[in-house]
Design goal:
It comes from Flexivirga caeni. It is a single chain. By secondary structure, the protein is mainly α. The longest helix has 7 residues. The protein is built from 1 helix and no strands. Helices cover 23% and strands 0% of the residues.
Length: 31
């Protein structure tokens, strides 16, 4: 199950390279 503000591994594989380095996976959206 994907929680609020989280993405699936597959989604991260696609968008990961497009995002700037900002504290790691999901860092910007963590509450």
């Amino acid at each position: 199950m994907v929680g609020r503000g989280e993405l699936t591994d597959a989604a991260w594989e696609r968008i990961g390279p497009l995002l700037p380095p900002s504290g790691g996976r999901g860092g910007q959206w963590r509450d």
